[in-house]
Task: structure prediction
Amino acid sequence: VLDVGCGTGILSMFCAKGGAKSVTAVDNSKIIDKTKQIIRRNNMSSVIEIVEGKIEDLEFDKKFDVIVSEWMGYALLFECMLDSVINARDKHLKPGGLMVPNRASLFLSAVSDTAAYKNKFTFWENVYDFDMSDVIPDLYKGAFIETVEAKNVVSSVCGFKHFDL
Result:
């Protein structure tokens, strides 16, 4: 198993616990130091090999039966690792191998939530008696991750992009 962007190593440990004979966990961030500690603490060093580096730059002496990755960013594609996972698939997956996950979909619907809007935007008009409304225009440039109650969904849900990896 190849775990691309392993982070803390949780998917690698699930694979090892599930019976994988060998797991190679790759990450290019400083979390890898903690990952090594976590793998040792959970007595999985004999099954899980930790590799620090960018998957696009790494070479292995074998192809993998399975590639796992939690590559999704918010809104599925923002700050995600899809390109890295596709690269790993093309370069390191055995023919007929398994990608997990191997499908993803984007859905869109309209939402109306006046209270949430007010909390996000008008909040800046009076922050402890300071007018900080200069922040408001920048809020339109970003994304918000929100849990939305069903009563605030005001349109049908529309699937508009499906990925088959």
Notes: The CA atoms of residues 99 and 132 lie 47 Å apart.
